[in-house]
Design goal:
Elements: H1 2-16, H2 19-36, H3 45-56, H4 61-72, E1 80-87, E2 93-100, H5 103-115, E3 120-122, E4 131-139, H6 144-153, E5 160-164, E6 167-172, H7 177-186, E7 194-201, H8 209-223, E8 228-233
Antiparallel strand pairs: 1-2, 1-3, 2-8, 4-6, 4-7, 5-6
Helix pairs in contact: 2-3, 2-4, 5-8
Main location: cytoplasm
Subcellular location: Cytoplasm
Family: Belongs to the TACO1 family. YeeN subfamily.
């Protein structure tokens, strides 16, 4: 699974290049999570999960507080959660998650981003079956043996534990997200390099150089869309 984690790191590094964009996306996601339940992460697990992800992206507290206060204030701004699936060059597969207050606009924008860059939208279910929803945690300063021991002590089952150059990556079932998180915290680990639910491709593919350039251009166009929150794919970056 190490190669799959490389894709996550690549995606995170790409997003970090435009902090204003990623902060805006998190602000929207935090607002939606806070509005759908209690605006308190201790009683709202969805909000708690978003805030944990926001921490790994260094989202400023002011942005977090503003989004939560907006939800507390009873804002009437509503968003729909949408998922699009599509194909890029050479059999590449893409999943796009969006939050939007204008479904027609978002669908049109996503379709155009695919079409103008050598891809095409698919029907619901055409791609998702080739991906697995996965909880992923990254920690530094621990070995695989350390992590295995603390998870066993907490009686938490995971899919895999993968050593990396700068730490350890843990892959778990989505419903084990909070159990894994609490196991780490009970062992004194408070900071994560990654802590999120993601969609991992069951099989990654490599693209020839020309197709890789076209694919990256397509992904950039999709991620630049205001309504798009997350993009997942099955391409191994080089």
């Amino acid at each position: 699974m190490g190669r799959k984690w490389n894709n996550i790191k690549e995606k995170k590094a790409a997003k970090d290049k435009n902090t204003s964009r990623i902060y805006a996306k998190f602000g929207r996601e935090i607002y939606v999570a806070a509005k759908q339940g209690e605006p308190d992460p201790e009683s709202n697990q969805a909000l708690k999960m978003v805030l944990e992800r926001a921490k790994t992206y260094n989202v400023p507290k002011a942005i977090v507080d503003r989004a939560i206060e907006k939800a507390k204030g009873g804002s009437e701004e509503n968003y729909d959660e949408l998922r699009y699936e599509g194909f890029g060059p050479n059999g590449s597969m893409v999943i796009v998650d969006a939050l939007t207050n204008n479904v027609n606009r978002t669908a049109s924008d996503v379709r155009a981003a695919f079409g103008k860059n050598g891809g095409n939208m698919g029907v619901s279910g055409s791609v998702a079956y080739m991906f697995d929803s996965t909880a992923v945690f990254g920690v530094e300063g621990k070995t695989e043996e350390d992590v295995l021991e603390l998870l066993l002590e907490a009686d938490v089952d995971v899919r895999d534990i993968q050593g990396e150059e700068d730490g350890v990556i843990v892959y778990a079932e989505p419903d084990q997200f909070h159990a894994v998180q609490e196991a780490f915290r009970a062992a004194g680990v408070e900071d994560f390099t990654v802590a999120e639910l993601t969609m991992l491709a069951q099989n990654d593919i490599e693209l020839p150089e020309d197709a890789q350039e076209q694919f990256e251009k397509m992904i950039d166009a999709i991620e630049d869309l205001e309504d798009v929150q997350q993009v997942y794919h099955n391409v191994e970056f080089g």
